Amino acid sequence: MHRLRHAHATELINAGVSIEAVRRRLGHAGTETTQLYAPLDDKVADAEIRAARRRRDRVNGVSHRISWCSVHGSAKLGGGRSAWRR
Questions:
Q1: Rounded Cα gap, residues 61 and 17, in angstroms
Q2: How far is CA 64 from CA 2, 5, 34, 50, 54, in A?
Q3: Residues in domain Tyr recombinase (predicted)?
Q4: Residue 50 burial by Cβ neighbours in a 10 Å radius (0-12, 13-18, 19+)
């Protein structure tokens, strides 16, 4: 039963449900216990970090678009940088 509970908490967290909602669902007194049950998947964490950076950059008026050069097989960062990176 414990493994099922852990899997359910992890699935909810990775689906974007807040830690507070999961805490209530599991009946924990504090989020510290819930965080032990629900480790965040690396892909989800990376996606959240990228989204936060995009929000920050929109607020600050910065563009970091990445373009792909099929001739050179490399990526170019937008937003004023002109050097191709390999």
A1: 29
A2: 44, 40, 36, 11, 9
A3: 1-54
A4: exposed
Q: CA–CA separation, 73 vs 31, rounded Å?
A: 46
In angstroms, how far is CA 33 from the centroid of its own chain?
A: 21
pTM above 0.90?
no
Question: What tokens were used for 41?
Answer: 């998947």
| 41 φψ region: left (φ > 0), alpha (ψ -120 to 50), beta (else) | beta
How far is residue 39 CA from its own chain's centroid?
13
